[in-house]
Predict the 3D structure of the following.
Amino acid sequence: MTFPFQPERLDVAAFAQSKASLSERDPLSIYERLAQEAIGPTPDIAVDWSVHGEQRSAVDGVVRPALHLRARAVLPLACQRCMGEVRVPLEVDRHIVFAQGEDSAAALDDASEDDVLALTSELDVRDLVEDELLLALPLVPRHEVCPGPVKLSAQDADFDAAGQEQPHPFAGLAALKTGKPH
């Protein structure tokens, strides 16, 4: 008997044992934390993901339930040079091994090339996809070459001239001291 797996409540062990697969194309709006990183309206942006269950040997040689997760999206972010929009492709391709309990997962994670999480009977795959895409965000998004001139100064060209036109705030006191009108 086959039963469909739900991405909201995925039984990882059963999914991995049956070597099942799931894939979706979701609107960015359902990934609230990821959508907050985008600038401007994002109604046409989608997050594509797929997950495949497998049994994978961990660093300690024990075969454990695992997921092969792939996700991709193109996010409009603020270029940190010109502050304009830059479309940044995000891609995730990870193997995630599951261990019994948080302590076992933490110990294996330190030594493993794969990500290691504690085994759960109700994993929300979309939360996992969102977490992985957030980790894939660049620290400093920017264009290779900005489309327009980049402003490299915080001052305007006439900033210095404007400062010279105003009298010094203590000029009136100096005039009182010398007895000359300012």
